[in-house]
Design goal:
Largest sheet of chain B: 8 strands, mixed
Radius of gyration of chain B: 21 Å
Strand content of chain B: 15-25%
Strand content of chain A: 15-25%
Helix content of chain A: 25-40%
Number of helices of chain A: 12
CATH class of the largest domain in chain A: Alpha Beta
Strand order of the largest sheet of chain A: 6-7-8-3-9-10-12-11-13
CATH topology of chain B: Rossmann fold
Distance between the termini of chain B: 33 Å
CATH superfamily of the largest domain in chain A: P-loop containing nucleotide triphosphate hydrolases
CATH topology of the largest domain in chain A: Rossmann fold
CATH class of chain B: Alpha Beta
Number of strands of chain A: 13
Shape of chain A: globular
Largest sheet of chain A: 9 strands, mixed
Oligomer: heterodimer
Helix content of chain B: 25-40%
Radius of gyration of chain A: 21 Å
């Protein structure tokens, strides 16, 4: 086990995943690269259907079955090749070294078991301990996610808890085996802003305590801005831009990232003025252009050739990668003689 | 100017039944004494956490629910006690747009049927006239008249919301109650729909009661904003004033909780503890002071907590705990 701690915790290369349907193979994630350092937070942002959840679920073999398939690529996690371990090995990783939380805790929790039983199950699968010890760990974990009266709450059922409390239970369950990586898929989308702020602060606090890395998947750019170190912007199954969070918000390069940032109302914007929009909508999976997928909605001048050839990621600034499209904007980029990855 | 809509001390209580015989054991005070005015051509934003009663308020306002107490005065008529037949002509002028266009559009009806239904119900026009009107409406909301033969599932979320808007516009309303109209939409589509709503307001002189939980969206489209908490209005002011000079502790807490799309922002991230309390048997006095366990909360019990005007047009609940 080569565990060089200076190596990134997770490296994903050329990940391709999709769904076998009656209408043929639909590729939802098309050759995506990303990596994440130990203890850091990677944000994956994009609109519905862009492939952000499919990317994350592919890592831990949780794509909806039997349709979902990982079609190619490499997933290296902490010295292990996750694509080539058997299902048994994946059981050990999932819920052990990699924890997950999802958007709707009510569907992720089992309604007929107490939360204590569900937490203990997570412990007993991954650790060789007695039931008493599992219970002790469960209560301690509920306490750490700030659930009041944890000793009593372990005996309650999910429906007896509020939405925010259920999400705390989900976090407790994901973290009870001290994972090295937490995948949080829209963890606060179903919650009110005040509860969202509590949950994000809690994840942040536990992340620092447990030195774990987090992949935060969300459609909310403000949540990304405040809670991540690095950001990958996904559009139509591809990462179109990747940079440190400060750099991305200060210097967004891809027209899609720029469009997204411009279209959200800001607290200091002039009221009742037209918001900027991105015209049109995301093409259907079956009708994706092979070239730049954003081209049909892009307002930059471009010819039809951009639809043909897939743009390569270029490093526009140190650590700031963006799809170098063949459009006017892309040619400007290339003139700066950049590093091609 | 006369308000197009005036809500006076509106209450909407639901009995809570319990025990073996399902006897009433309490009541959920979803809306508990709300007074608001909406003027022609303006947007009044209504913000609050889930369960604060904002959707119930909208439903009671257009008589989808029968209010427990209080009055709703629409365009000079008290509609609170009106019967179905009397209400019918006024219903043309007050329409609603809902959050989830997938659920508020009948999946078995074509877009043409959906948009022309208001004419059918109100018995307006011939078939040909209705078809012409539907084509105009679809054009107006940025869709194509050819789409009228298609069904809701063939459309994206943003387009479905446009269909919902076309239906609401069909009878030339003066007021539209919008319940979370863009919260189910992606950001790039959300801005398209918000722009459309602002254009329609300008061109047709519509008034909106705009209910949402996204404070940045509400601020952007609203002239005035009301903050609701546990069935009551805590603060009401001009949209800029309420964000830049909030008086009530709840307004401040809500604003502090909104994430800002700027990694360098140095905003105050103090957290509001606890969840929204249940409207079943709410605490006496100031409900927010109670949640905060404020030392002065007890003083608010038994006080008259009707809003007071602290600055011209800026109304706040005068409790010693939250606005002291």
């Amino acid at each position: 086990m080569a565990k060089d701690t200076t190596e990134p915790l997770l490296v994903v290369r050329d990940l391709k995943a999709g769904f076998e349907t009656d209408a043929g193979l639909l590729v939802a994630v098309d050759d995506v690269d990303f990596s994440i350092e130990r203890g850091k937070t990677l944000g994956i942002v994009g609109e519905s259907g862009c492939g952000k959840s499919v990317s994350a679920l592919s890592l831990i073999r949780l794509l909806p079955q039997p349709m979902g398939k990982v079609l190619g690529g490499e997933i290296l996690f902490d010295g292990k090749d996750l694509r080539n371990i058997d299902d048994e090995g994946m059981h050990g990783v999932r819920g052990g070294e990699i924890g997950m939380i999802f958007q709707e805790p009510m569907t992720a929790l089992n309604p007929v078991h107490t939360i204590g039983r569900q937490l203990m199950e997570a412990v007993l699968i991954h650790q060789k301990v007695s039931k008493q010890e599992a219970l002790r760990q469960s209560v301690e974990m509920l306490d750490r996610v700030k659930i009041p009266a944890a000793e009593i709450r372990v005996g309650e059922y999910p429906h007896q808890l509020s939405g925010g409390m259920r999400q705390r239970v989900m976090i407790a369950m994901a973290l009870i085996n001290k994972p090295k990586l937490l995948i949080a898929d829209e963890p606060t989308t179903a919650l009110d802003v005040t509860v969202q702020a509590q949950i994000l602060a809690l994840i942040d606090e536990l992340q620092a305590e447990m030195e774990m890395a987090v992949i935060l998947i969300t459609h909310d750019l403000a949540v990304i801005a405040e809670n991540t170190d690095e950001v990958a912007v996904m559009y139509a199954g591809r990462i179109v831009e990747r940079a440190a969070v400060g750099e991305l918000f200060k210097n967004p390069l891809h027209p899609y990232t720029q469009g997204l940032l411009d279209s959200i109302p800001r607290m200091d914007s002039k009221r009742k003025q037209h918001l900027k929009t991105i015209e049109g909508m995301v093409p259907a999976l079956a009708e994706m252009p092979t070239g730049c997928r954003f081209a049909p909605r892009c307002s930059n001048p471009h010819g039809d050739e951009v639809l043909e050839e897939r743009p390569k990621m270029v490093e526009a600034e140190p650590g700031h990668w963006v799809e170098g499209c063949a459009c006017f904007w892309g040619r400007e980029l290339k003139n700066k003689s950049l590093n091609y990855g | 100017m006369e308000p197009i809509l005036e809500i006076r001390d509106l209450k909407m209580h639901f009995p809570v039944k319990g025990g073996v015989f399902l006897r009433p054991v309490g009541s959920a005070k979803a809306v508990d004494g709300v007074s608001l005015k909406v003027y022609p051509g303006e947007t009044l934003g209504l913000v609050g956490e889930s369960g604060c009663g904002k959707s119930t308020l909208a439903k009671a306002t257009c008589r989808l629910l029968d209010p427990t107490a209080g009055q709703v005065i629409f365009d000079g008529h008290d509609i609170t006690k009106m019967g179905r037949r009397e209400l019918m002509p006024l219903r043309r002028e007050m329409q609603m747009i809902f959050q989830d266009p997938a659920e508020s559009l009948n999946p078995r009806h074509s877009v043409g049927q959906i948009v022309s239904e208001p004419f059918v119900i109100q018995k307006i026009g011939t078939r040909a006239e209705r078809d012409k009107k539907v084509a105009e409406l679809l054009e107006r909301v940025g869709l194509n008249e050819k789409m009228s033969t298609r069904f809701p599932f063939e459309f994206s979320g943003g387009q479905r919301q446009r269909i919902g808007i076309a239906r609401a516009l069909a009878l030339n309303p003066k007021l539209i109650l919008c319940d979370e109209p863009v919260s189910a939409l992606d950001v790039s589509v959300q801005s398209q729909v918000l722009n459309l709503m602002m254009d329609l307001q300008r061109d047709m002189g519509l008034a909106y009661l705009f209910i949402a939980h996204d404070l940045a969206v509400v601020r952007h489209v609203s002239d005035r904003v009301a903050i609701m908490y546990l069935g009551k209005i805590m603060e009401l002011a001009d949209a800029d004033a309420i964000y830049h000079h909030p008086h009530h502790a709840y307004t401040k807490a809500l604003i502090a909780a909104i994430p800002v799309a700027d990694p360098d922002s140095k905003r105050d991230r103090s957290l509001l503890e606890g969840d929204v309390p249940s409207p079943i048997d709410p605490p006496k006095g100031c409900a927010f002071g109670y949640r905060m366990k404020h030392p002065k909360w007890e003083q608010s019990v038994g006080m008259d907590l009707s809003l007071v005007e602290v600055e011209p047009g800026h109304w706040v609940q005068p409790c010693p705990c939250c606005t002291g």
